[in-house]
Each structure stands twice: as C-alpha cells, then as structure tokens.
C-alpha cells in the first residue's frame, strides 16, 4: 500500500502532466483558431458582389424589411450614407493617398461609411433588377472605348 506522501507526489506529477498537456492543447487550439480566422478574413477580402447581395437579401428577409426597400427609399438611404462619408473628409483640406496621418479610429469609421454606401448601392441595384457586377464590367469596357489610352 502506498503512503500518503507517495500518493501526494504521484497526484502532483499527474496534475502537472495534465496542466502541461492542457496548455499544449490550448496552444494548438489557439493556433488552429488563428489559422481559421485568417482563412476566413482572406475569404471575406475576396467576397463577391453576389455574395454581399445574398447576405443583404437574407438580412432583409430575417427582419421582414424588404417591404421598405423600394428603389426610391434605397436611393435616398444611399445618398444619406454618401453624406456621412463626405462628413469624414469635411474640413480636413486635401488628404494624401493612403491617409498616412489619420487615426486608426477614423480609418475604421471611413471603412464603415464606405461599406454603408456600397451595401445600399448593391441593394438598390438588386431591387431595380440590375446585375451590378455585369453592368460595371460593361461600363469599364465602354469607358475604355470612349477614353482610349494614349499609347493605343
Ligand atoms: Mg453610415
């Protein structure tokens, strides 16, 4: 039969083993989570207009908001967001490319307002039956014909 101190030592080393292993597992889980989040972020960066459009439709369906999404309402909402976007640049004078002297919070705010404009534009296009990706692609081609590059 084992003595009390021998049992305590065994228990102590068993506990240490579990603590060490659980930390190791935690580290692995964190690394795995970080890798998954990174993958997810990459996916989000490459998100398509169609996917955004689908998510906007789901968002509206879940809240029964499509009834408010008439083309006119969406246009006015988008113009309101353009106003919010303009407000960020108001009174700043000329702003250099890349916004080098801006606070992170201001850049984050800018990203949000740009997104508001984009999301309303996509929703407006959808409610008008316009395939925005297709229309924008055709417009770029049309612009290239209208304004040929000098070396062509
Ligand atoms: Mg906004």
Automatic annotation (TrEMBL):
One GO CC term, this protein: cytosol
Catalytic activity: dCTP + H2O = dCMP + diphosphate + H(+)
Composition skew (Basic and acidic residues), residue ranges: 36-46
Protein's cellular compartments: Cytoplasm, Cytosol
CDD domains: NTP-PPase_RS21-C6_like
Pfam family of the protein (one): MazG-like
Location of the region described as Disordered in the Swiss-Prot/TrEMBL record: 27-46
SUPFAM superfamilies (alphabetical): all-alpha NTP pyrophosphatases
Keyword tRNA processing included in the entry's annotation: no
GO MF annotation list: dCTP diphosphatase activity; magnesium ion binding
Record-level GO BP terms: dCTP catabolic process; DNA protection
Keywords, ordered alphabetically: Cytoplasm, Hydrolase, Magnesium, Metal-binding
Top enzyme class: hydrolase
Broad class of where this protein is predominantly found: cytoplasm
Listed EC numbers: 3.6.1.12
Cofactors: Mg(2+)
Gene3D superfamilies: MazG-like
Role this protein plays: Hydrolyzes deoxynucleoside triphosphates (dNTPs) to the corresponding nucleoside monophosphates. Has a strong preference for dCTP and its analogs including 5-iodo-dCTP and 5-methyl-dCTP for which it may even have a higher efficiency. May protect DNA or RNA against the incorporation of these genotoxic nucleotide analogs through their catabolism.
Assembly and oligomerization: Homotetramer.
Name of the protein in question: dCTP pyrophosphatase 1
Biological source species: Rhynchospora pubera
